Amino acid sequence: MIINKGEKRESFMEIVIGISGASGVQYGIRLLKVLADMKIRTHLVISKSAKQIIQIETDYSPLEVEELASEVYGEKDFTASIASGSHMFDGMIIAPCSMKTLGSIASGISDNLMTRSADVCLKEGRKLILMTRETPLSRIHLENMLRAQQAGAVILPACPGFYSKPQTIEDLINIMAGRALDQMGIKNELYKRWG
Length: 195
Fold this sequence. Notes:
The chain is of the alpha/beta class and 195 residues long. The protein contains seven helices and eight strands; from the N terminus they run βββαβααββααβαβα. Helix 1 (25-37) links the parallel strand 3 (14-19) and strand 4 (41-46).
């Protein structure tokens, strides 16, 4: 039961969405839309470089993306509720997750709100899903993925399967958004499953 201002409310999920500065901001945007449709509360952190990429890769403005979330925080806002383990959010998905963000998380560096919220997930034993976006991968990238996974993160590279015969880019985005929601334990029908 989540308590707000002394009132008891029905139990509901709260998910933090991070959109970092890697190609593939469409994944984070799709997750925000789907979670809003499901009435799941979202806390959004967009990095400065991700705001630039949103304008390059999509027809959205950063403000339009922010309007999809329940709560929005500045990248350096360490007073945000999600910066504390005492705020009971359910987990976090960083989509896409840049190699810089991955490296910071793997090294325990909480120099912005996105990496601090990820650190909160790891220290509190909450689900942290990193939709990594880079190719090819260097040894440093791979070692950082391993360190983050060993600390408790789920590494979910943005590598959609093709057995469902996707026809559009939206189909490919839905596959990865659906897989991220699967890992968070949120039932969805965003993509055709095997068998």
